[in-house]
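We emphasize that the prediction below concerns an isolated chain of 189 residues; any contacts that depend on oligomerization or on bound cofactors are therefore not represented. The input was used exactly as deposited, without trimming of termini.
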Amino acid sequence: MALLKDHPEIEVLTLTDLNITEEPEETESTFMGNAQLKAKWAAEKSGMISLADDSGLEIDALDKEPGVMSARYLGKDTPYTIKNQIILDRLEKVSDRSARFVSVVAIASPQSSVSLISNTDIICCEGIMEGSIAYHPEGSNGFGYDPIFIPQGFNETYAQMSTETKNKVSHRGQAFRKVVIVLTQGEKP
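Result of the prediction step, given as a token string:
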């Protein structure tokens, strides 16, 4: 995982690496709830300390849509080019284009584990990047809603940024920097 590459002391294994093919259904109504659900599920399935992220885009003029449904907004299989265009169409006559990306990374231990995380704790680390929605898609680096999101303090979309720059400023980058502190220093955010 690119966000943890500078920390060789943290070994990252994916569910695929562990031959775990199923995934839990995201049934919670908040980013934190879904991240906790997925981390706890992964910890129990793997028997290891597990991280899970839930992230999404909140657009103020759309009552914070797509929000927690970001990946499933307009249907899970709908391409993001279509999702992005529908958002832009809905905002066509809207002057307040404020939005934010939110990421919550949950860290959970399996019930039988003794670690820096107690068996009942799930530690959550949050990152938020305020910004606005562009008037048209720009850039080809990135994924999802990146071509329409301009982070605060920048004049380009996430999709126009290098991966390195995006990781330094993004919501997910903020959350994972907090995760590193928890995992390497045992400090809760």
